[in-house]
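QUALITY CONTROL LOG
STEP: pairwise intake check
CHECKER ROLE: data steward
CRITERIA: each record must contain a sequence immediately followed by its structure tokens, with no blank fields

ENTRY 1 OF 2
RESULT FIELD BELOW
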Amino acid sequence: MASGVGGGSGEEAVRNKQVIFRDYVSGFPKESDMEVTTTTVKLKLPEGSNGILVKNLYLSCDPYMRIRMKRIEGPNVFSSFAPASPLSGLGVAKVVDSGHPEFKAGDLIWGTTRWEEYSLITEMEGLFKIQHTDVPLSYYTGILGMPGLTAFAGFHEVCSPKKGEYVFISAAAGAVGQLVGQFAKLMGCYVVGSAGSKEKVDLLKNKFGFDEAFNYKEESDLNAALKRYFPEGIDIYFENVGGKTLDAVILNMRAHGRIAVCGMISQYNLEQPEGVQNLMLLVYKRIRMEGFVVFDYYNIYPKFLDVVLPYIREGKIVYVEDIAEGLESGPAALVGLYSGRNVGKQVVAIARD
């Protein structure tokens, strides 16, 4: 885990700007649910620490962070953010000081850190050393980080795709969706995505190579829209939205179809989640609907890199980022995810080196 920072005596203290989570959120999150404060930090580990002190370079804004703004009780894959403490999430950082044998000063890493300029990381599980720096470092918040592995594992491991199958992706212009569509096209599938603006629809068709795409906000009848794009039905649905979209998709699934449930962003800000009415069709159509979390697939990260790095270098996959500059822009960038303000992967850049 990433925790507060300290240091030995005699070290000069430097500024450490932080984004503080004020308190648990109900309804739609607001920028005022967070505040930017400044403290100080010594750039030397506390005596005897086996952690690492890092300078954060890029922070990842991810939809699941809204879940952590609620008070979470009982077993859950996520834990709540601690009120009056910095937000935590995935990011790219540079090691400033290390008491751990696997890391040294100057190493670049990605994994869980805190929303501040400098962090002390004491939990090394899920921390990856960056070996390939011929691609933008910010990619390790996206295509080469958690969203990329999510897209890869969700599509290839959960969906078991076959060439020529019909694939539908919701929130298709986001950090994960844009990659799922490109993985599907590389396999020879027919791919359609939905998004929330004309700009994003154009991106899906003209940059990411989707066969078709539509703006769900312009469709009064999602069932009819899906029938228009999938007259023979859907084999694979990569689920990022939930609610009415999921209901309409189930109506249009083919026999033995697969649904990979990655997230349900339409439900995160609701006090009472929407129900799904068509679940009995899972029985009649023998549909497999499976939820998954990326942490279960961290063991295949080296295999993932072996596949995806050549795709990037050869231009077979492209990736779009929406980069907000400065830690103080973090709250607006994070809140903007839930209204679809971002175009592509939302990143907050704190420092370039």
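ENTRY 2 OF 2
RESULT FIELD BELOW
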Amino acid sequence: MKLPEPIIIDPQSVPSLRWGIIGPGRIAETFVAATQKHTSQRFIAVASRTTGRAQEFASKFNIPKTFANYQDLVADEEIDAVYISSHMSDHFEHAMLAINAGKSILVEKPITYLPEEAEQIFAAARQAKVLAMEAMWTRYLPQSTILRQLLESGDLGKPELLTASFCADNRAVERLWKPGGGGIVFDMGIYPIAIAQEILGEPSSIAATGKVRPDGMDEESYSLLNYESGARASLTISGIATLPMLASCSFENAVISLGEPFFVPSSISLKTKDFYPEQTTWVDESGIAGHEGLSYQATWFAKYLSEGKLESEVHTHAQTVANIRTAFEITKQIGAKPF
């Protein structure tokens, strides 16, 4: 069994969309910087309700238009797509605002806290015939395209057991510890949840324990997921402890392991199941490192929009909702209240 070649879309082969930005915070800075560096996408407008913030952001990234409210931004006829990176609790309102103005949207992950709200966003987008994508950027990384090809080939056999971990001491990141601004399961844990969903599907049962602060914000969780196929998954998520950020899955015929951190451009290995395994590894040597990998999703978004797609083919609306449903269930079981 061999590793296939990654599928990488040439950024120059897709239309250069004109983007507007709602919520010019830290992740928006990272996304815009990476996208300007590695793609042909253009950012032409930014809106913030904080006085001076839009102007500051626009000056830093040479964005020509600024708005003091979001209504004026989504009404701008020159904008092709809106990137929404406001507080998580505001995603639903801002997504619906953009959709109702006829704009296609890329919404930071997770798109909402509640699965019902995500379903409403996607239903509205389909009715308006606009593209709506959650910014689950890991699905568009080169190693993810290799993973999908392996899964689609059937050569791996049935999945057996998956482990995934995202544990990093993020106590200094204030928004993660404020209701509506994140939460460890929803903000960090969505990555292990998403890789489990991509490989195994939606779980049939979840058993979770964890640590929760007196104010209801979750610190840590340990979840066991079972699937109708008989497969199992173990997810470890922590905002206070730091451990290797790895993901691996054992199949009937082989083992797949993603390099650390598994959710940024890294590597993918194919191993035999022997005690001393034979191993083949693909390493990302593109030079697009760390969170610069956010740029890949912008290129895929432009491709989908040019093709008239209303959802991502590799991170569908149904998959997005399934991940939120899992995150919601984990927080519910451990007694967390992140929103």
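INTAKE CHECK: passed for both entries
DESCRIPTIVE NOTE, ENTRY 2: The radius of gyration is 20 Å.
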